[in-house]
Amino acid sequence: MTTSMSAATFKLAADAALSPAQQALEQQLLTFITEHRHAEQAGLFVIRGDAGTGKSAVLAAAFAKLQALSRQHDANPLQGTNNYLTVNHNEMLKIYKQLAADDPHLLKKDFQKPTPLINRLTKTNHRADVVFVDEAHLLLTQPDRYNRYTGQNQLADLLNLSHVVVVVFDTRQVLKLKSYWHANDLDPLLNRYSHQIFDLDQQFRVSADADVVNWINAFTRGHLQPLPSSPNFDLRVFQDGQPLYDLIRQRDQQGGLARMIATADFPYVVNHGTWYVTAGSLKLPWDKVNLTAEPWALRPETINEVGSIYTIQGFDLNYAGVILGPSVGYDPVSDRVIVKPAAYQDQEAFKRRNDLGNLDPLKVQLIFNSINVLMKRGRHGLYLYAVDPALRQRLLAL
């Protein structure tokens, strides 16, 4: 689905085509937009799918086609429409802006983060024709002063400010309480607005047999199964982090885009020195604050760092070396993977909310979600090291 040069992105290669399901989705989406762009009440189009099912690829392709029609000189039903694609993720926004440089019908201003877009449309009393929202599960569901968002729900705001909203949604990729979405949280909006839902279920990123994807899915729900073998996918468990890193470096030299990534289990304070991730005898720095226009995964020097869920979510790697930190453990009585929120270092993810009831099970789910994001980054291989000795030995026994 991607070029070898930019395999960390969701951009289709020049000679690649959307799958039949993706083609059907693109056509259905453009038809929906055409039918609803003049409606008084917004239309909502929801694309659902697990990590790696090509949601961003088809979204990028459909948006490029929409903008080409909008800016076409020949008359067509979508000519002159005012459209945006928004994503609440700095690294993915960089990729979208790079796409704009390669496509004559796209402009960098077409791509924005949701808060500035919402604030500007509100201030100018302007209504967009179409707003695409990638990673809509990252939209805020409460006010956030740090991000200068004063509303209650960014998706509800975008629906009020647009004729059509297209969202990519996966509740298993929610990573923070301030953007927490229950599985049924979309229902009130679906009941209120004219809508369509499209499910993508074909795995494009993980080029493995179903056994490997099923193993990852089981793990991220706490279940342990025998380690599957696949001729198309290299799945290994390591006794120590150093040989894992050595193999990642080797893979990176061979084909590029092999990186170390880890659960948010190691201390890190922005702009306060260098903070390290440890995995047995391995010690590497966390990813640095990236002020460049180049996404973390595409910068060669980041082979010497460990990426987080916030730098890698939404991206493809060729090989992913995943460090499962101290919050990920093992219960020998139930033979299950367990998580320990008290050991999770990303306490910003657990910033207190009073409207979600008991937060303990939600914190557990957020950690499992982060594991799901990390373990589905590698297209050709996944290498695992568990800091917890009991979990590490159980994984090696599998």
From TrEMBL:
A Pfam family hit:
SLFN-g3_helicase
Q: Which domain of life is it from?
A: Bacteria
Residue span(s) of domain Schlafen group 3-like DNA/RNA helicase? 44-388
Q: Which InterPro entries match?
A: P-loop_NTPase, SLFN_3-like_DNA/RNA_helicase
Per its record, how is this protein called by name? DUF2075 domain-containing protein
| Classification lineage | Bacteria, Bacillati, Bacillota, Bacilli, Lactobacillales
Gene3D superfamilies for this protein: P-loop containing nucleotide triphosphate hydrolases
